[in-house]
## 1
Amino acid sequence: MAFETIRQGRERLIALLLTTPDPVLDEVASLGIVTEEEYEALEKLAEPRERIRRLLIKIQRKGERGCEQFLECLQSLFPDFPPDLQPPGRRCVTQTNDAESLEGGAFSEKNEAENPEAAVTLGTNELENPGGATSLEKNDLENPENTPPHEENDLGNPDGSPSSGEIDPQNSEDATSSEKNDPEKLEEPEKPETMLSSGKGVVTPNSATTPIKDEPENPGTALPSKNDPESPGGARSSEKDAAAVSSKRADFEGSGNIPSHGEEGKTAAGKGTIEDGVIPDLDVSMPESRAESPGIASSVERNGAETPGAGASVEKSRAETPEDSVSVDRSGTEVPETSPNKVHAGRRGAVKTVLSKLRLRKFRNGKLRLRDLLEISPESLKDWTPYVLGDLPWHFLRKLMALNGTARSTSLGQGTSDEDTSEDEEGRVSGDVFSLREDKSRASLHPLDVLCAVLLCSDSFLQQEILSKMSMCQFALPLLLPALDTPKCTLMLWAMRDIVRKWRPHSLADSRGFRAESLVLTSMPTISFVRLGSCSFSKSKLLNEVLSPSQQHHDFFIHRDMDSGNVPREIADGLVEISWYFPAGRENLDLFPEPIAVTNLRGDIESHWPQFSFLTEVSSAVFIVTESISEKEYALLSSLQGSATKYYFILNSQAGKAKKTLGFLNILAPLLDMKKSQLLVKEQSNNSAELVKKLRSTLQGIMSSSPKSTSIQHMAVTARELGIQVDEDDGECWTALEHVQEITSEIQDMAKYKREMLRLQGDLWKNLAKVEKELCRMKGQRDVSPEDYRSQLRERWLELRRQQNQCDLTSGMVKFISGIGQLCPAEKHHFLKWMKFHLDHIARGNLSSLRAEYKEKCRTLGDDTQQLAELDELISASSLGVEHFLRELGQFYEAECSMVKERNLGNIQRQFVCLPGIAADLMLEGFPMELIDGDAANIPLQWVTDVLTELHAKLGGRSRMVVITVLGVQSTGKSTLLNTMFGLQFAVSSGRCTRGAFMSLIKVAENFQQELGCDFILVIDTEGLKAPELAKLEDSYEHDNELATLVIGLSDITIVNMAMENATEMKDVLQIVVHAFLRMEEIGHKPNCQFVHQNVSDVSAHEQNMRDRKHLLEQLDEMTKAAARLEKQSRVMKFSDIMDYDPEKHSWYIPGLWHGVPPMAPVNMGYSESVCELKKYLLEFMRHRSPRRASKNVPQFIKWVRSLWNAVKHENFIFSFRNSLVAEAYTQLSVMYAEWEWDFRKEIHLWMSKTETTIQNQSPDDLGPGTFEKLRLEIHQILHSGEQKMLQSLQSYFESGAGNLHLVEKYREDFHRSVTFLRHELESHLLCKSEEAIRIQKGRSKIDHLQTGYMKTIEGKVDGLLRDCRERDKALKPYELKREFAKMWKETLSELPLESLPLRQIHKDIHYQLCKDLENRGSLVKQMLHKAQNLLTYQSKPFCMKKEYLDLAWHKAAVEFITQQCTRELEEFTKSLMEECRKYVGQKVHSQGDYDQTYCRELLWMINQRLQENVTGKIRISASFEVDLKLHILGEAASTFQKMHEDFLKKNDPQCRLEELRPQYFSTFRDLYYEKDACQKRAFDFSHQCLIPALWEYMKKRLGIEIVDDFLSSGESIEYGSRSFFQFTVQKKLLEEMDFNNYMKYVSNYEGFVKAWIQTCLISHYRETGGLGELERMVLATIMKKIRDALESSECQDTLTISEFLEQFCQVMCKELVISKDNLEVILFKNTASVRQFSADIQTFLPQVEESILLGWEELGGEMVFTQLQFKPQDEIFKHVFGCGKQCPFCKVPCEAGGSDHKQHFASVHRPKGLGGYSYETTDRLVYSLCSSDVASSKSFKNLNTAFKWHPYKDYRQFYPTWCIQPDPSISASDYWKFIFTKFNHQFAREYNVQPANLPPEWKKITKEQALQSIREAFNME
């Protein structure tokens, strides 16, 4: 017993089912073993074991029959199901037949031999054991009379009970059908009533009624009644009937019972027979070849032969016969049902089963959408081989989207070939090696079942896409979809709306014309093919042969000999397919002269009478394929009497049947008005070619007899009359259509409609585009100044925008906005589709008539080109699509935005603010969005920006994108390539080529986003290059360059599409592409490039073209060089320099799209496979690229669009490109570099500070010859280490994957060089400082040596005085003691031979050096020097320019202008040089050393160097200038050096030094005399006389470094992080203050202004924060800790004497503190204290020391602190932000480039030249032009560098190659300086003593807010 089997094997079953719990649960639910409620309850259980355990309990509660069904289900699911767990009734049969069966049954050799074409053969088991299974001799078609009487018995119960009329409720599945229910018995004339009888009488087509209770379950098996809702003669179904039908659905859905009736029963039966090893020679499924008793299926199922492809749900359907008008409810009670309900319920059950197998149940209600299908997922990288039934829908859809001809295949992939064989321990094969049994996993579904299931689960838009792709593949399309989830079949009108076909009828062959029309609107004859009864040859295969041209066979219809075509259909019966033949205009090749439609009904007409009725109504002719006609068929066909349709019969002649069949046909002939030609007989002796020939001839005869024509749209009318559903008949579709018709009804002439209704995008928009480009190119400037011309253009632009804004919305646009704005999403989607269909239809009509007119005029007008040109323009203007309406919206939006910006419109008055959101929604739905308007060749930037911004917001900020673009010659299949690759909907074959560029969004699956590195793929389709309509324009090449530059600049991957037929065009395209790639390389963007060579079909293409690829690379190299010259690039370049191109990996050879000659050619399989291979490569490339480079998000993409488009609009792209993303990345890199540089500098400064201290602590003897060399080596090591650290940081940063680093890759070398430059700079600094420190220390050695001697003498005298005083009789009082000491001190100093250093006359030494420098300059110079006054007198004299300084003899016309220019240039040079020299002198004075002769030599070298660099070649100066300049500079220096020398002498005067020590000596003397414990006193003196001065000097050295470090890491550091940040900060502050004097300083003395600014900022920063005190405490605390550690160290504590202790202490602190030797000697004098006590005493004074120093610094105050510091923080921060110090050669704005050794200088904002004092030579008015405008204009300049010859501004780099002056990205970019100039025009004029500028009126409208906004944008601070 099955119940007992489950009970005993529970644990084994649980273990088995846990391997695949979900499929088991799905299967038992689909079979109805468990109810929906039970299924859902089990689904909710999270634990699989609990789920399975409860399932078994529920099964056992259903009784024995439920348990048996469950075990049978498991046996079908698990091939290795244990025999002891199998259902008891099946075990013996399975074991007996296992070896013989093919998929569970045996093949009847007897039947195969007797009738190889027969559709039915017998199972061996059935023949050998007639007692055990029903005998099927009735299947012997050759001898139907031999069939003995057959009693009604149950196949599962051979004893014959119960009868077919009495179904056992516990075993309803095993009910047996009687012979009168066998459809094969239809041919027996003696028993006609068995045809459709219910046992009560014969039902004929003329019968009025049929009793419901006796009616067969399938109304299709009964002749249609007049009352039958689907009968041809019956009334249409009432609402009441429909309700009755729907009310009964639940029973069948809940139980899973699928009644076997009519065609469905036969399908199930067929399936069972297939499984029993019977391979019928079918058309597609069993019903077409035979009508079999459901009892057979039941018997076969009892033999246990089910496979995964055949679900147990079909078993139940086989149990019930057409007579069984009952079903069994859950209680076992028989429930009579009406026939329609059982039909629909049975169909629903079958559909449910198929959907479960295909895992599509979740899409039954929530339909599958196109965008779900197009989503990029990990499966996109995998092979599309299906391995389980659930893979089939996705396999079909993916292959179909890729236009792959194998999409309909439903074969499942296999594992290893030997997996069914196993070996024993000795390696021998166990079991049979060879078997007729096939692996059960190979079982599949019929392709049409998969198609029906997919269409059922798809929304209407995906259905459209599916049918469109099927049409391209030349697959037959579903015309009528069977009643799957509805009671009625459905006409697929909407699904075919998108299909457009082109053909050339023979009537247009001579004129070479063609027709292009929507398929559903094209009227043509329709020929239908149907089957009556069984047929042993394939109707579909016959049709394929008829429709296929010679040598171009194609399987339009699926037939039995195709892959999986022999699998029985489960739900596709009743499907009507349609295919077409379209002529190509070649009479000798075309099969038919005009288009013809061919339909094919799947299944028998008696089972699908509504479909057949529909076909008879719409067809010109109906071909009925049959093998025999009996009385039943005769009765059925006679009901067609009176039909206007012609009927043809195709008879497959069968022995023994022909006579009877012909008899019936002769009777039918007069009824159906048939002629002899309307019968085609396939003789057994003839092959199919003869029949094909006859059939074609017949069809040609029909075509020539003016048959009726109808379109699919007209068929819908007939369908509705017959009660057939039309897929368009839903509310959403009709609502959308009504909106569209309101718009399109007004459109007749498209060009006229566009002029009148879409006014903004006509001349207004085109003129706007021209003005925008002219603003950048300034070609029409002529004599107008650039700024005036730009103002004029700006005003013109505003006027055009005003005109646009004043235009009211036309009626068409109002309706369009209503459609996309007010309809719900589904209606909106329909609306846009309807718009496309209607507009395309109208466009085709317009274009067709215009082309005909053009052709006629070409013939009649001859050379009159004007009319032809006008007509040609009209043809170009006659395209109208949805994109034009959206473009109009964009223009309304842009015009409104312009008015808001100009303050002509308030935000509250805006009407179109919601439009970008609507457009963003459309993009998310998959609609292509126009990026570049191809008609105006312009980008509506504001519109595109705001749409994409809305898109970013709707995506919640998750909008990382990889951008893929395609470029190529027009009409080379670019759009088709993208559509095939990604399933997109770019317009193709719509009567016009792509214009401009469109972008479409593809979602990446959540589980693939991380791996792919993006959330979306943005695909951009572009206008074709080398377009013929543009070729006549002068700038067509530039237009192509612009397009290529833009799309390549936006893309991450660029596909260059080339057709191999045209080598010249390919070369042109390559030139354009190379040009664009060169531009991208220059701006740091390197997209990947894939070259696609189309129309290359040879399998050896890749190998054969190796030489071609090498030649291509050589061509590319040549083109790169040419492009570099055009772009004014000086370096020699190769193609490999501008992109990473691998000819082997990046070249693709793709066959042509069509396999054969269109219009009947399907898509080439090679094309589809190659495109898929390319797609996989691109996805793999993206996946491997993602870790290295971050994808752009939408805001970044917007910035790229803006900057690229701005640069494209300028003629010189490379030097016009400004991108905020590049700027951000560069700024970030500059900030990081500045941090690394400061870290390096800080380390060096600290090292130098310690080194200087160490040198100062060394004696002259220690500073030997090797000291400097040792330092040099140490300097080299520390610099090398720091340099490598910086370079490593630089490399790590570039490898870090930080945002957009690839964009600044080209600057890496600049920063690399800057590191090396910094190292050399620091090396020079360290060597000089070290050498100077050694020199100073050595210079002091003599003084220190003398001082030591003097101190020894004094100490001796003090010691003598002490002894003398102690020996006196009475103690001396303090004042007496003081008097005695003073007397001794005076006598001693008078006795000492005090030697002072000699006072030198520094000015004389400098004068001597000057004379030596100029000794070779001739006698004139010597005379001038001789006449020169004392150098010291030049200190007070300012340097004034004299006329004789300039040597203008070289210029023939030494006009005043040139003199002024030269004088000004020389003045600026002199001022700069003198400032530099003062700075050098100040540094030397700050060192507090003595003057050295090298100082003068270095000054002279600096002067000579600058004269050589800056003046020679520019200005010819006289000798007097050089002499006077040197005299002034050296005179000023001499005075300063003289004071420095005198200060040094004073500080180091021996007497002064000794006098400073006198108080300490006296104090020591007094303490010794009074014998006080002087230890504490000496410790106090050491702390105050030694430590405090040393610590003060330490603070002066270290505090400056710490201030810089603290300031640069504070909150304000961002302002000093890069030069751009600093410039913005300064200019913003100046704008807030609006002080002219500050602006004047900023413009005229930038360096001085910045230094003062930084110092002010530092002081105010620390004043406000109070942080300076904290820094002082921190620095002091650090050194104090070191002092305490030193005092407590064992090295110091273990010394024996104070002398050793202090010596050790000084040694430990020698790198930190310089302790005065003089004071130290005094401390040691007569110091006999305990070391430990002395150390402890010192430590007790340390807090006082610390407090004293902090108090001293606090008393200095903020500003004075900075004057005390040796390391000036303001100077270091100045270096941080000042950079290279270069200024723009025109407007003097400072360079902002990062690093210190960059190749290119640039500035974000340039300013009017008048701010720098430039004035016009003729009017003496300030110049107000900006160099950033001038370089884009046609103006010229002349100056010293051009030798005062005019030179075009555009070619300024000829003289200033290191400067990159970029044109302003917008007219408002320089608003800041325009505003300042306007405000201070008169002040600047007074300052420069010239006339104020005549500024353009536009400048006066600029507000302070706009000025601030302009620098925000310029410096990228938004």
## 2
Amino acid sequence: MAQQLRQQLEEVGSKLESPPASKDALIKLLKKAANCLSEIEQSPEPSVSDSMQSCLNAFAQKELLTHQDRDVKVLVATCVCEITRITAPDAPYSDDVLRDIFHLIVGTFAGLGDIDSPSYERRVVILETVAKYRSCVVMLDLECNDLILEMLKTFVSVISDGHPQNILTLMQTIITLILDESEELQENLVVILLSVLGRKRNGCSMAARRLAMNVIERCAGKLEPFIKQFLVSSLSGDGNYLNYSIDHHEVIYDLYQCAPQILARIIPYVTGELLTDKLDIRLKAVQLLGELFSLPEVPVSEAFQPVFDEFLKRLTDRVVEVRLSVIDHLKNCLITNPERPEAPQIIKALSDRVLDYDENVRQKVVAAVYDLACHSFKVIPIETASFVAERLRDKSLNVKKYTMERLVDLHRLYCSKSSDGSTNLDDCKWIPGKILRCLYDRDFRLEAVELIICGSLFPPELSLKNRVKHWVSIFSVLDKFEIKAIEQILLQKQRLQQEMQKYLSLRQTYQEDASELHRRIFVCFKSMSRLFNDPMKAEANFQFLNQLKDANIWKILTTLLDPSISLQESWSRRDELLKILGEKHPLYDFMNTLTLKCSYILFNKEFVKEILSEADAQHSAGKTKLISSCMNVLTVISGYSPLLLAGCEEDILLLLKVDNELIKEGIAHVLAKAGGSIREQLTMTSSSVELLLERLCLEGTRKQAKYSVQALAAITKDDGLKSLSVLYKRLVDMLAEKTHLPSILQSLGCIAQIALPIFETREDEITEFITSKILQNSNKADEVSLDNTQWNEISELCLMKVFGIKTLVKSYMPARDAHMRPGIEKLLEILQKILSYGEISDEIRSSDVDKARMRLASAKAVLRLSRYWDQKITTSLFYLTLRISQDAYAESKKSFLNKVHQYIKERLLDAKYACAFLLSFNDFHCPEYEECKQSLLELVHICRQFKMRQLSAQSDLNTTPAYPEYILAYMVHALAHDPSCPNIDECVDVQAFEPIYWRLHLFLSLLLHGDNGSQSGAFPIQRKESYNIILSIFHSVKSASDAVDETKSTTIHAICELGLSILKRLVPDVQVSGIDVVPLPSMLFKAIDSSPNDSMTDDNKRTWLSSDSALAHFEALRLKNKKMGDSAVAEDGMIIEENGDDNEVPLGKMMEILRNQGAKKKKKKKQVKKDMFDDLETIDSEFDILGVVREINLDNFEQAQDAAAIVTDQSRSEKVDGKINTVKEISSPKRKQDVIGFEVLVPTPKRKRSISTSRPNSSKGSKGNIKISPLHSLLERSLFEEDKAETKTDLLLSYASDISSKKGRKVSNEVHVKKDADSSSEKLALPDNRKKGDQSRSSTSSTKKRKRRSIAGLEKCTSLIDQSNESELVGSRIKIWWPLDKRFYQGVVQSYDPENKKHTILYDDGDVELLLLSKEKWQIIDNSHSPAKQLKSHPPSVSKDISPESVNNKNNHSDPGKNKESRNKELDRSSSKAKKKGSTKKKAEESSKLVSVSNTNADPSPGSNDESEDTDILQSEFNDAKSDGPKDEAASPTSETEEKTKAEELGVEDRSPKFSDTKDNSDDEPINVWRLRAMKTT
């Protein structure tokens, strides 16, 4: 066999030495050679090697290696690979031949893409041979770099998803061998691998991507430097790899899965992309990281934890699109891996954005949270889901509706899952309560909530038993408001069912008088349509429905109204009716709603039976909470659908016999409500029900006794007269035994309310027993605690007394004819004694807590009795009741005020009792102040609503409770009679009347301004009526005297005067045509009998309480209160900062912020007074809001010089009697520290500062928002120039007109400090960056190149400046290095702060920064001279022989037009050069100021051509500055003493007129003066 093989090899080799010309013959010969070579083992015997030599020589021929036929190439490559295998590890050929061989082999790899090719198997063998025998390593030795690149490109291009795994493995082995054996990797080799990474690569298969990822994973250490270089270059944007079109984000995505360790060093660059100002890059970074963190089963590595944290912070990004993207990715993170360690952190971050200011973000958070909750019930905590559900109260209707939809879907899913036991039943029980609360939202109508509760809350396939369990669980967490909401739904359903049944019966009734039938049907339609959202549309639909003739429709409707119908039948009948109509029928939607509203789908008889069974089951399980819940469900159903209890009488009686107090109480309550509907069936079932109820009346709890008495009256035909008579006799007889007194007293009181004739038969015995045996009973000496006792430490005797009082009160509140009940005076006398002493007599001993409890019970009794017996309640009893709000026990006060609020809200109590809230506090520091304010505000709103109903119903307009203003008459009288109120004639201490002021001010402000607290802008028209009523009430009270105590009249009048003063300050501008006479309560006031000459109540005779000094004292207190609330300014600033850059602050929001920061009132022009109170009045002045808006619009893009919005009080002109009076406000410099300042965050439009938070101590980090506090300096400097008003008025008015005509015009000049004629004429440029107009300003700002600071930190200055020379840099031009921009930016050093050692830099493009130059990289542009030093050495001199008038005349004679033009230019420039901070102090000496104007591009050298123009402007400004002084001022310049005086008045530092005495550059000073004047005249 071996001999034959050798012969074949020799034969084939000899023939191949001269290859046949025929292709087929050659292929046949090559196949034979390949077969022979494949049979030879590696390292064969010498004889075999010798026989192979001819073949080796033949295959080394160029003719075969470079043959053009495809099949021949494959066969030759196959044979060569076999030869290489056999001779390994020795090379069979020379290097040149091997190169040709590898070219041939690599070329055959291109055919691997065609799996169906006949030569595919041979190509695979070639690939296996190269991989197995490491032939590819020889390519490295031969330096076939280009061939290696070609092979790698071939691999990634031919590999496909259809290839078997072994092909991918072979290719991976070859590439890995090349990478491992390479001493120096080729960059192009790495680029090829990276080019196939990514999910969006066109022309590259997923198999090629997997191949590259596998190679990178195995050779990560070798490839890391190159990959890192590529990523750093791509992330930094240097453009070295732009020609390769490789998406570095996609590369990072794949590297994170295969070799995350490579990415550890490029994390800071990824973080930089998250923080960049470029939105597209930031979005791509968010997209990348979101996809990385969402990878399943790939946890966040420790190295990527900082990036993950920064990724979470992008939830607070200023761009909405970024926040939305982050929310989506975080949701995907938890969906792919709900149990990941970062889940709590992600959930918290999402829940924090549920209050985002953008509604799309809030809605996205709701979607994300509930998607996660639906995906996995355990990933979202119940607290988080409940918190997100609060978006049902969102300000956006879209968010509300979406949240409602998601909550319903979530609840349905929970119900479905809980039925099979996969989730806990209690996980979703809170959802219906949230939905029910939407009933109180005006955006959700009752119909919408009802349709959800009835039709959508539970899946239709949910079994009845599970539905009952869910409702029991739901009721266990419902509060009283949510229960009231479901009762409202059932009430609407009950009304609709009753009206619908009436309508159906009318349709079946035949009447000869058809018109009467139609009228009655129309009335039914009217009643039913009111129960729909759109009554008019509903009524039209009812009319359309009435015309339908299909009998099946009416039959189905009748069936749906049957209480005995089952749940499944209700659904099927309803679907049948809708199917009859069809979806295209006009009534389809209406009938869908109608059938849902009037059917028994929510609760039915089956449901009631199941509830009773569930209650019994919970009793057996001993679950008290669920038992109570079952009883609550039954109580609600029995109140609005009592017919559903028919047929359940036996079950009800069985539960009534159960030994459980909660069940007994619940069943008694159910019978009290539904007993009348099931009376006959209940009597037929058992006669023992009355005995069971009587036992509860005698021996049960108080609630059981109450409900049992009502049940006895309900289940008997004679309304309980017979049964209650028997019970009443037993109860009275048992009083003497003194057993079960609480229940007996409760039962007696209820019988008095239900059956008063029965109670009156033995009323005296009951009253005598309660009075003598209970109320007059005293505690023993050892039972009375002398120590301070707690509120809950109440004695049993006190409880019994409270029960006795309640029984007596109920006896005077029968269900009918209460006003005819005699003897109320005795009860009121008892209550008055208890309110006075705490007991019925001051001789009875009891603890302080017992007395407080007794007073509280008596006060509540008065409140209840006032509903029927208000005319019998005396003034003294009324005031004793109100003073419970001043009780020493906070619990007593709170309970009493809550009861007052409840009764007034339910319209069971006269609104005059709201005075109790005002008496409950003394000043705004009390903790009760805000609570009382909110309660009063709600009561005022309720009274006004009731008033509107009265007006719409054309009821009696004289009914005072509907008008909250009428409470004032009671309030004034109550304040005067309060023990804390001093006599106005005896006490002159203004502090003693502070409580009265606070109470009056609070109530009047609530009446006039609601919750706003202070009025701004136009007085609302709807409040004018309230103002007139208040004014009339005060004047009417002043015209009356006290009917209770005549000596209190003066105090009452003084309180009215104080109220009028407060009224005028709250509403200063309202005009009143006349004062009406208001009827006052006769029990409090009486008319004054006085002659016409007697001016006792004349307004001119005012008491000292309404004097200016007293009012100033009260105003100071109020302003002090405002200061305490000014901490909200920071929050307002945050709002502006948050809305900065891309999101501008709405004007309305900014006005609200400004008002909150410094709201003050307008005032008439008054003479300046020196006393403290008048100074305090001046504080209350209001800055001009419109002026602020004008200033913001003017200076919005003047950030180069202003960097702030300067707010000032401007003079206002009012036209009075045809004359224009200039109103000015004068402020005393002694109290400048009391002036309320505020800070305005001015968003700069020049560039965004995304890293501002990272550098809190640098102005560069917060350049976008510059804080100023202008009121201290600007107000004082402007307000104290009023002594010059006459000489300035004409001049300033002319300048004001000039400013208005030139506002916004660009002045491309620079301001220079003019030196003396003998000194050098060098000028220090300060660029004026005023833009041409609003349109040009915005366009210029938006196109300006942004400057970027380094994220990593600041670059240090190589040469630090000397501390002693820091101030001498002022005025120098320097250039500062900005690392991210990689360039210098030029600017001027404007000023130096020695405390912070920081310089203010004004850049040439207008930006301003406060920098610590010792930590910056900067250079002086021209350091041949120090401007500050030159200022010292060359002080300016002004000839003292030239007067301002002469200079002015000279200018006017020489060139009047030019002088005027220069003055206009100077004014325009000065208006744009306002100070950055109002607190900056500058010298006020006009004579030392020489200002010139030149072009911004002008040469600053001494030889400038602008000197003549500068001289004219200099003289013009000098004249203007001097013209501010008095006309008789001497011609010589102001003396040093006068200059110091002026400086003190202006609030600036006192400096020498010589430049040598200061280091600050004062060339802006005259500009400041012009700025102040211009602002005072605009």
